[in-house]
């Protein structure tokens, strides 16, 4: 029952790194929202109250592309639905008093979920969730204000390659799950479903469909040794269209 | 964008998060909140195992969606090279920050050279 300060330091440091990276995208969101016609208070309200980056970009992007507000809301809400799955996965680890979970719900996003569930010791998962969620919340909103007010003085985050840093970071966070066969199958099937569904449905939905990868993995026998992972079954085209 | 839309989006986004964490998650993992108090889970039920397998499935989908997808099209561009370089770094057990730096640097480098 030692306090294990080093491990705690590790996830706090990871949280700050992730947070700082999202801050740059927060700036990009602020700039985009401003050019789309949102006022500074509206832009800040998006990042404070909606607080799920992909949905915010989608909403503003649809408006910017000439779409109506219902279309903007629709795609943004579809993207936001995956946070519900994250909440389900997190529920077994976040068992604090109700008011904290009511507040913590707002922090359920890609990054906080990934950082939390990546902790091999389940005792670290609540702390990692809060560290990741609060760090991203702070930097994302800071970046949003800077972008909304500062405008075009900010460089292009894509020129810095930051859009590739996020998925690479998610691979690092998912790596522990690759240590067992079911985790590998879940990831492989999830990725295959996402790729297969992409051309046929709205952005955001492929990630929801990928949850079926976990169901498939559930049917796979638990790995007893550390034998090579079987080649994952290729998911057939999931085209509900 | 109207304030109404922003508030509807905010409410909807929060609702998804809270439904997962406060309603469906506990119902699936706890075997009912009105049940007897058990400090240690007697057996890991399928909902709990499913909960453990959802993250790799969703994370992997997120990775491919952010790496080879633009809108609704599959696009192979500088992101893929950067993410693959990052994956190699993960495999070689590089620290987390270095994984991010390698992926960003490779992608930025390719864009700087090739556009």
Beta strand count of chain A: 0
Q: Given the structure, what is the number of helices of chain B? A: 4
Strand order of the largest sheet of chain B: 1-2
What fraction, in percent, of the residue positions of chain A are helical?
55-70%
Question: Proportion of β residues of chain A?
Answer: under 5%
Estimate the mean pLDDT confidence of chain B. 83
Largest sheet of chain A: none
What sequence of helices (H) and strands (E) makes up the elements of chain A?
Answer: HHHHHHHHHHHH
Low-confidence spans of chain B = 32-44
What series of H and E elements makes up the topology of chain B? HHEEHH
Q: How large a portion of the residues of chain B is in β-strands, by DSSP E?
A: under 5%
Low-confidence stretches of chain A: 225-241
What oligomeric arrangement do these chains adopt? heterodimer
Attribute tags:
heterodimer; A: about 240 residues; mainly alpha; 12 helices; globular; B: about 120 residues
Structure, described:
The complex is a heterodimer of chains A (241) and B (115). In chain A, α1 (5-36) runs parallel beside α3 (53-64) and α1 packs antiparallel against α9 (162-174). The termini of chain A are far apart. Chain A is 67% helix and 0% strand. The model of chain A is unreliable at 225-241 (pLDDT under 50). Chain A is built from 12 helices and no strands. The longest helix of chain A is centred in the N-terminal third of the chain and has 32 residues, at 5-36. The relative contact order of chain B is 0.06. With 115 residues, chain B is mainly alpha-helical. In chain B, α3 runs antiparallel to α4 (96-114). In chain B, β1 (69-70) and β2 (73-74) form a beta hairpin. Chain B has helices at residues 3-30, 46-67, 78-91, 96-114, and strands at 69-70, 73-74. Helix content of chain B is 72%, strand content 3%. Chain B is built from 4 helices and 2 strands; from the N terminus they run ααββαα. Chain B starts with a helix and ends with a helix. At the A-B interface, α1, α2, α3, α4 and α5 of A face α1, α2, β2, α3 and α4 of B.
């Amino acid at each position: 029952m030692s306090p294990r300060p080093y491990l705690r330091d590790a996830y706090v440091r990871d949280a700050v790194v992730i947070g700082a990276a999202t801050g740059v995208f927060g700036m990009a969101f602020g700039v985009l929202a401003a050019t789309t016609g949102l006022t500074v208070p509206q832009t800040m309200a998006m990042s404070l109250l909606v607080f799920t980056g992909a949905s915010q970009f989608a909403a503003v992007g649809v408006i910017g592309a000439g779409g109506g507000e219902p279309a903007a809301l629709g795609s943004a809400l579809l993207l936001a639905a995956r946070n519900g799955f994250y909440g389900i996965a997190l529920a077994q680890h976040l068992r604090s008093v109700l008011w904290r979970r009511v507040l913590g719900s707002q922090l359920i996003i890609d990054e906080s979920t990934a950082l939390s569930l990546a902790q091999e010791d389940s005792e670290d998962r609540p702390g990692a969730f809060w560290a990741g969620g609060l760090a991203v919340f702070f930097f994302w909103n800071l970046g949003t204000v800077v972008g909304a007010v500062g405008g075009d003085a900010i460089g292009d985050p894509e020129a810095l390659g930051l859009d590739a840093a996020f998925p690479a970071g998610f691979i690092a966070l998912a790596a522990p799950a690759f240590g067992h066969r079911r985790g590998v199958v879940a990831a492989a099937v999830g990725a295959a479903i996402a790729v297969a569904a992409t051309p046929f449905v709205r952005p955001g939905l492929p990630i929801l469909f990928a949850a079926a990868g976990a169901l498939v993995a559930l049917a796979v026998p638990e790995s007893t040794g550390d034998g090579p992972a079987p080649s994952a079954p290729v998911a057939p085209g999931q085209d509900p269209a | 964008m109207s304030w109404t839309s922003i508030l509807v989006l905010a409410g909807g986004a929060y609702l998804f998060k809270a439904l997962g964490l406060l309603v469906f998650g506990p119902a699936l993992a706890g075997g009912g909140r009105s049940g007897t108090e058990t400090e240690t889970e007697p057996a890991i039920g399928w909902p709990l195992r499913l909960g453990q397998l959802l993250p790799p499935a969703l994370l992997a989908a997120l990775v491919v969606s952010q790496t080879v997808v633009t809108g609704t099209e599959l696009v192979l561009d500088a992101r893929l090279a950067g993410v693959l370089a990052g994956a190699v770094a993960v495999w070689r057990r590089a620290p987390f920050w270095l994984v991010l730096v390698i992926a960003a640097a490779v992608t930025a480098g390719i864009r700087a050279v090739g556009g």
